[in-house]
């Protein structure tokens, strides 16, 4: 029987397995038969399909029509907004005593200190040799630091002034330079909100430097190297140029940066922050690019908050070119090749509901369905982009705990019609910086 007939009998398109480069085969049905089975012309907002993620070299199942299903599952309460500005019992506050007995200085800006409960330590012993290839272990060493953004516990990044956000970016760049001299990978990330696993409401992030490349970094390194080799242009540089021209998923932009909902997004309200020029690492940014990064971060994060008028929970992290490092015998890496582009992704596994609750969404599971499944509309960028349209800044909560210089956030963002929370991943030079 012909493939197209077998597909018609089965009620769907036939997949013949993986094609070249591991790409799933496309349905073999004739176009007219495919259209008939779909009930008319294909619409991305209504009909299931798979989308290719070039960074991960995998496919995402998009089933936007499932967003219509009734929900009787878990609902999260809105985050509490009565966080005290200073709490002597909060170990991240100025002058407070931490778990190890050390007393924080009375800092007035950013504050960096070694994580008191680090996931990585620089002097951990090596594991014994394995007696079987299915039970392997390898050395893992590194350094973990915590960075407080501000001395006030009731502030978050979107409520901080532009100079304060710029100070955070400067501290990120300094840490990336310092730790990158000894370790090949430096991961800067923030989990905001208790439902994202954040253990303390004080505005802070973590910085992990490791003797190995994490799985995601290894995968992105391979795919971006391949793209540069095949096409002669960094992947995320080309992607940013395409999205800037199409404007279909564009959320906010300025002269140096743009924020998009990735074509391959797998999380509700996921965004990707990209520089317009080829930048490999945070520390490679010029002063003017750091200023414009502070501005677009503020605009994006305010939009997130305004979207449902809550302090929006998210996870974000910078991805950039890994750092060349000597004296690391436990790993073998090719030299950085400029294929990366700095980038920052921001994502949240929760969907706020109009009634003031938050619908808990299961994280995409790559083990069970074999592909990550996106069960919300791919056009979610419009909701983020237009959040706070016509307003002068963050939702009203901002006025209750603004720091110096925040008085009129709208004045800092000319033509402000969007405001949303940030996701900041970095990409590599065969990678490009992304967030």
Question: How would you characterize this protein structure?
Answer:
Among the domains are: 1-42, no CATH class; 216-434, 2-Layer Sandwich (HIT family, subunit A), CATH 3.30.428. Helix content is 22%, strand content 18%. The chain contains 8 helices and 16 strands. Strands 4, 5, 6, 7, 8, 9, 10, 11, 12 and 16 form a 10-stranded mixed beta sheet that branches. A 3-stranded mixed beta sheet has the order 1-2-15, with no helix packed on it. It has a 3-stranded antiparallel beta sheet with strand order 3-14-13, with no helix packed on it. The radius of gyration is 23 Å and the shape is globular. The N and C termini lie far apart (49 Å). One of its GO terms (cellular component) is Golgi apparatus. Residues 221-321 form the Galactose-1-phosphate uridyl transferase C-terminal domain.
SSE blueprint and pairings:
Blueprint: H1 3-10, H2 31-38, E1 49-53, E2 58-62, E3 75-76, E4 111-114, E5 142-148, H3 162-180, E6 185-192, E7 204-210, H4 215-231, H5 235-246, E8 250-253, E9 257-260, E10 271-275, H6 287-308, E11 314-317, E12 339-347, E13 350-352, E14 358-360, E15 372-374, H7 381-385, H8 409-412, E16 430-434
Parallel strand pairs: 2-15, 12-16
Antiparallel strand pairs: 1-2, 3-14, 4-5, 5-7, 6-7, 6-11, 8-9, 9-10, 10-12, 11-12, 13-14
Helix pairs in contact: 3-6
Beta content: 15-25%
Distance between the termini: 49 Å
Q: Which residues sit in consecutive blocks of at least 5 with pLDDT less than 50? A: 1-17, 26-33, 325-335, 349-373, 396-430
Structural class: alpha+beta
Continuous helix count: 8
Let me know the CATH homologous superfamily of the domain at 216-434: HIT-like
| Biggest sheet descriptor | 10 strands, mixed
Oligomer: single chain
Quick one: overall form?
A: globular
Order of helices and strands: HHEEEEEHEEHHEEEHEEEEEHHE
Radius of gyration: 23 Å
Helix content: 10-25%
The CATH topology of the domain at 216-434 comes to HIT family, subunit A
The total beta strand count reads 16
């Amino acid at each position: 029987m012909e493939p197209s007939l077998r597909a018609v009998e089965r009620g769907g398109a036939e997949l013949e397995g993986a094609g070249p480069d591991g790409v799933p085969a496309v349905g073999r049905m004739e176009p007219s038969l495919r259209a008939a089975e779909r009930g008319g012309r294909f619409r991305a907002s209504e009909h299931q399909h798979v989308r290719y993620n070039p960074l991960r070299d995998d496919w995402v199942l998009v089933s936007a029509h499932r967003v219509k299903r009734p929900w009787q599952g878990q609902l999260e309460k809105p985050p509490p907004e009565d966080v005290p500005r200073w709490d002597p019992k909060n170990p991240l506050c100025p002058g407070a005593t931490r778990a190890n007995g050390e007393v924080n200085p009375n800092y007035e800006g950013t504050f960096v200190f070694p994580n008191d409960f680090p996931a990585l330590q620089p002097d951990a012993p090596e594991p014994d040799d394995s007696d079987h290839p299915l039970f392997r272990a390898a050395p893992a060493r590194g350094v973990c630091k915590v960075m407080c953004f501000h001395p006030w516990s009731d502030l978050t990044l979107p409520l901080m002034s532009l100079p304060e956000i710029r100070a955070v970016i400067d501290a990120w760049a300094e840490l990336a330079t310092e730790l990158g001299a000894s370790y090949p990978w430096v991961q800067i990330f923030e989990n905001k909100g208790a439902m994202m696993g954040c253990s303390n409401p004080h505005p802070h992030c973590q910085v992990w430097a490791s003797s190995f490349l994490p799985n995601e970094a290894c995968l992105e390194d391979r795919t971006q190297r391949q793209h540069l080799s095949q096409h002669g242009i960094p992947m995320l540089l080309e992607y940013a140029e395409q999205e800037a021209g199409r404007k279909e998923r564009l959320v906010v932009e300025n002269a140096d940066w743009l924020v998009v909902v990735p074509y391959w997004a797998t999380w509700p309200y996921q965004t990707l922050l990209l520089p317009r020029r080829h930048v490999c690492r945070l520390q490679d940014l010029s002063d003017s690019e750091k200023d414009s990064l502070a501005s677009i971060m503020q605009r994006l994060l305010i939009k997130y908050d305004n979207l449902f008028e809550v302090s929006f929970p998210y996870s974000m992290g910078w991805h950039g070119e890994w750092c060349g490092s000597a004296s690391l015998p436990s790993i073998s890496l090719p030299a950085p090749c400029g294929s990366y582009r700095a980038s920052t992704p921001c994502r949240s596994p929760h969907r706020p509901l109009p009634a003031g609750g938050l619908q808990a969404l299961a994280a995409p599971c790559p083990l069970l369905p074999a592909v990550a499944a996106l069960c919300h509309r791919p056009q979610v960028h419009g909701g983020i982009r237009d959040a706070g349209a016509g307003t002068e800044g963050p939702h009203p909560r901002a006025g209750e705990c603004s720091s110096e210089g925040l008085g009129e956030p709208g004045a800092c963002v000319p033509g402000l019609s969007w405001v949303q929370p940030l996701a900041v991943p970095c990409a590599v030079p065969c990678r490009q910086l992304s967030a």
